[in-house]
Amino acid sequence: VAGSNSREVVIVGGGPAASRCAFELRQRYDFDGAVTVVCAEDVIPYDRTRLSKELLAPQPPEAGLRWLEPYSSYEEHRIQLLCGQSAIGVDTRRSRLNLSGGQELRYDKLVCCTGGTPVLPPRLRSPGVYTLRHLQDVEALREALATCKRLVVVGGGFIGGEIASAAAAWGIGVVLVEALPQPLASVVGNEVGERVANLHRDSGVEVRTGAPVEGVERIDGSLRVGISGSEPIDADGVVVGAGMAPAVEWLKDTPVRLDDGVVTDSQCRTEVDGILAAGDCARWWNPRYQTLMRVEHWDTAGRHGKAAAASVVEDSAGFDPLPFFWSDQHGVKLQWIGHASNSDSVEIEDTDNPNKFVARYSHNGQLTAVLAVGQPRAIAKARQELQAVHSSS
Ligand SMILES: Cc1cc2nc3c(=O)[nH]c(=O)nc-3n(C[C@H](O)[C@H](O)[C@H](O)COP(=O)(O)OP(=O)(O)OC[C@H]3O[C@@H](n4cnc5c(N)ncnc54)[C@H](O)[C@@H]3O)c2cc1C
User: Fold this and answer.
1) I need a surface site. Which of 10, 123, 208, 315 has the fewest CB within 10 A?
2) What value does the mean pLDDT take over residues 9-31?
3) What is the C-alpha separation between 322 and 255, in angstroms, rounded?
């Protein structure tokens, strides 16, 4: 193992970042010290992206739930899994992680991959209001979908859009409420966002935009969703897709720097010796864009976990991905690559089908990101183009 003196690696989290980090240590680096994964959920790591897709379908496919690795792989690779246990604090002077069950784990390297928790503002909390992040959320939401006649989805981001899409397939009335002028406007802009709104409308979803939700009130067993400046909406179920907050409160009494996530350098290292972070909970220095970044997407989280493993064994060249994500809405695949926060123009390449197009974002004439809607092949080409433009070296 290249340059590593670490003998005990403890990884906290049960998503792709934690899982990839653990397996990479064994499979790529032949790391022969102890590897322990601590995960608050009481199931082995699974594919979270299916929660709002296959697992919310009226008839979920067989094997709708997918484990990231079969249980036997953890044994085979001598990865100790502690499921159903939460990290609750760290004694950084003694290099000990404290677990909810009272156990203390010694570490040489501690990798934080705790993802995030859905944001649910107090004014939206009520029985009948749901969020979706973990497997345990699916059952409650499915029960609601089975009895609902009208569902309000608060938030037109990717998860809100997928939930609206899944709920429409149950044949119930769905209202998607978005505070911005269009769904996804903060990522794809208003022009493309309007097309996404139309995709929902074509499938029978009512879309209310420019509609900030004020609160939810429970009246005689049904729910009233108050909208600032317009009519309230009555429903019998509400799902909130209002983003997530990094799950880092267990680190708050440590010297680890927290600022919208765990702040690290490009090699996943915090300023505290031996503590690293990866995935949705980490805000790291991306050399490609010369900025701190936090990304909340599956592909990046898995790659980030691998980068953390490289850093554990001191073989890291720095983590500089082109952010990539996909989403499935009403049977159409949306794929995004790049980073477009400073884009000043968007060019749309249309096809005969309004639900199939490519949007190319640029800044000062230079390509920054590409969104491919119903055009899966366009993304590989876009990746090559963006690699050439935004090379970090
Ligand atoms: C419903 C849904 C659909 C999605 N669909 C897509 C998609 O289509 N495309 C896409 O690109 N991305 C999608 N994402 C985003 C993607 O799932 C995340 O970016 C990815 O899971 C992040 O991986 P992670 O390993 O950083 O964290 P997570 O997958 O969030 O895993 C974090 C784990 O840490 C555990 N944990 C938290 N706190 C503690 C603690 N104190 N102690 C121990 N364990 C703890 C959590 O229980 C969880 O198991 C979706 C997300 C959701 C919720």
Assistant:
1) 123
2) 98
3) 30
Task: Check the CA dihedral 163-115-245-125 and report its sign.
Answer: positive
Contact 56, 6 (CB under 8 A): no
The whole-number average pLDDT for the span 172-181 is 97
Total residues belonging to the chain: 393
- CA 85/CA 206 separation, integer angstroms: 41
Cα separation, 91 vs 213, whole angstroms: 41
Alpha-helical (H) ranges within the chain are: 16-27, 71-76, 135-147, 158-168, 185-202, 298-312, 378-389
pLDDT digits (tens, 9 = 90+) for 36-70: 999 999 999 999 999 999 999 999 998 899 999 99
Task: Give every CB contact of residue 106 below 8 A, 6+ residues apart in sequence.
Answer: 8, 95, 96
How many C-beta neighbours within 10 Å does residue 259 have?
11
Give the pTM.
0.96
Residue with tokens 């009520």: 126
Residues with C-beta less than 6 Å from any ligand 1 atom = 12-18, 38-41, 48-49, 51-52, 86-87, 113-116, 132-133, 159, 247, 250, 279-281, 296-299, 301, 325-327
